[in-house]
Amino acid sequence: MGTITKITRQIKNTERYNLFIDGKYAFSVDEGILASHNLRKGLEVDELAIGELQYADDVKKAFNKASHYLSYRMRTEKEVRDHLLESEWEDGIVQEVMDKLKELKYTNDAEFAHAFTGTHMNTSDKGPKWISGELRRKGVDARYIEEALEAFSQDQQVEKAAALMEKMLKKYKNDSMTVAKQKIEQNLMRKGYTGPIMKQAWETVDNQRDDDEAWQAIYHQALKAHRKLSSKYEGYDYYQRMKQALYRKGFSMEDIDRAIEEIKNQEE
């Protein structure tokens, strides 16, 4: 048993107060704890009361930390919980804080899922599977994810996928159309678009090249292969390896023969 003999406000953090018991500094508490527990000079406190005060103060400090973390942007419950656990708060304190945050509606995973989905629908090139994966990683329940993704209509997905395809067709203009399509579809898969959506998107995209564009692609790849192989092989071996290299890149044998012949004529 001891008696609170002095209470002083901290200089650097004016929301905290130092408590002195029997003339010696004991611990500090948040002003909210000071008020809620009616702490005052002359009050007698035993070890149990001191333990309760320190626990309540730890809950308050953890709550303040969580509130600060939430002040920058919306967070999921898992993000907040992980943030608190990284600070090594006890599980009981963390759970008490999480319950209070939810009660005050500071955290709401359903609202987070809708906001996150809407943001990426409108400002990024990400598809629904990517969005779903990110929400799962952030700990959002599957039912909230499903509800949020209802806003991402099939027409919107096709439109965004088609826009990406058109952009990437220009990027891969020096690849055969077969390889270009493979690269584009792999890219779109990583961005979260499904096979059926890509199939519909291809139907809306002009993916046919004119003769000049097709020739530019095969000739570009043929020159690259020639520079790599001509110093190592000649004659039959050179021709076979050139054909194999270009065939693997998706070009027809007719176009391959034409490109090899063109390179041969230029070097004669």
TrEMBL record:
Cellular component GO terms, alphabetical = cytoplasm
Cellular localization per UniProt: Cytoplasm
Its main subcellular localisation, reduced to a broad class, is cytoplasm
Domain RecX third three-helical residues, every copy: 155-201, 211-260
Record keywords: Cytoplasm
Which one Pfam family would you cite for this protein? Answer: RecX_HTH2
GO annotation (BP), single: regulation of DNA repair
Residue stretches making up the RecX first three-helical domain:
62-101
Function description: Modulates RecA activity.
Family the entry assigns: Belongs to the RecX family.
The protein in question is named Regulatory protein RecX
Tell me the organism. Answer: Rossellomorea marisflavi
